Amino acid sequence: MGVFEIYKQLLKAFGNQNWWPVENNFHPKEWEICAGAILTQNTNWNNVEKALNNMRKAGCVTIEDVLEIDEKDLRELIKPAGFYKQKAERLKIFAEAVGSSENLKTFLRKTSRENLLRIKGIGPETADSILLYAGNRRFFVVDAYTKRVFSRLGFFPENQNYETVRKFFEKNLPKNIKIYKEFHALIVKLAKDFCRKKPFCEKCPLKEDCSFKG
Ligand code: SF4
């Protein structure tokens, strides 16, 4: 079974995930996605939600707000997301690179992936999440879940490098942004619910096509 067939099977099993999850009270909403993509580095989404909620409550919801707030205060707001000193600095550096809330959509439309990767603290997974979900640009997002699931399915070794895995998906999927968005979200769901570190294969929707012996 190819990766597109796997996508269709997961979509049938789980339905649309409609990512990226936003509450729509950052301005513009693309900024909520960018901030979330930076905050989610090395932590789980529940912790990111807490950090984003603190920012909402403090009225720190635009790029200008992040540029203006004292870095120490920003650290306090985002503390639940962990690595808060590093992430506060990264949010500010990203906000500086964009310039203003008004400028964000243009920035997301025009920036190159290479340019994003030159910003301190923006690695490939964060860059591709920002480009795909905030910028509607066709870059496939790879994370540790993607590598775990697809290595178990026999496509590549789990330690395969990021770019090779990204290009593999981009080569083997229809060139469709909606599919890229959904597929990444479906992989995350599969990895959280079934293909965990200790997999729960019995009820996995891919079990007929998976020969992983854990
Ligand atoms: S059958 Fe097991 S190892 Fe294979 S994808 Fe499903 S949960 Fe992962």
Total count of domains? 2
Shape: globular
Report the structural category.
Answer: mainly alpha
At the third CATH level, what is the topology name of the largest domain?
A: Endonuclease III, domain 1
Supply the CATH superfamily name of the largest domain: Hypothetical protein, domain 2
Mean pLDDT: 97
The description of the largest β-sheet is:
none
The termini sit apart by 20 Å
How are helices and strands ordered from N to C?
HHHHHHHHHHHH
Number of continuous helical runs: 12
Rounded radius of gyration (Å):
18 Å
Q: Ligands bound here?
A: iron/sulfur cluster
Question: What topology does this entry show?
Answer:
Elements: H1 3-14, H2 29-39, H3 45-57, H4 63-68, H5 71-78, H6 84-98, H7 104-110, H8 113-117, H9 124-134, H10 144-152, H11 162-172, H12 177-193
Helix pairs in contact: 1-12, 2-3, 2-9, 5-6, 10-12
The chain binds iron/sulfur cluster.
